[in-house]
């Protein structure tokens, strides 16, 4: 169980979280990302929809200040058997045309920021 954690990371610092299996590494990162809540000492991350829609479920108070951005690589990659663009933009078959048009700018920005253009240029077709 994680409790009374204080963590300060300075700008441009690279942090690695290590520990034994089950020690709370993923829980710590999920909490930092705002994907895990604790209510009465029970992990309710799987009930996030109910927590957000039900005002009677109050999460424990957390003080979290993030300035800048956070990068996080999950243990299990989320890659679908679709195009590179579909994977980056999270496009589904429903309303594909509308989403495709709206996500062109987002896609181009991700490609630029991640410096993927040289990699994409060597592919036979894009």
UniProtKB/TrEMBL annotation:
Gene3D superfamilies assigned: P-loop containing nucleotide triphosphate hydrolases (3.40.50.300)
Keywords: ATP-binding, Nucleotide-binding
GO cellular component, one term: membrane
InterPro entries registered for this protein in UniProt: ABC_transporter-like_ATP-bd (IPR003439), ABC_transporter_C-like (IPR050173), P-loop_NTPase (IPR027417)
Record-annotated ABC transporter domain positions: 2-105
GO molecular function: ATP binding; ATP hydrolysis activity; ATPase-coupled transmembrane transporter activity
Name this polypeptide is given: ABC transporter C family member 2
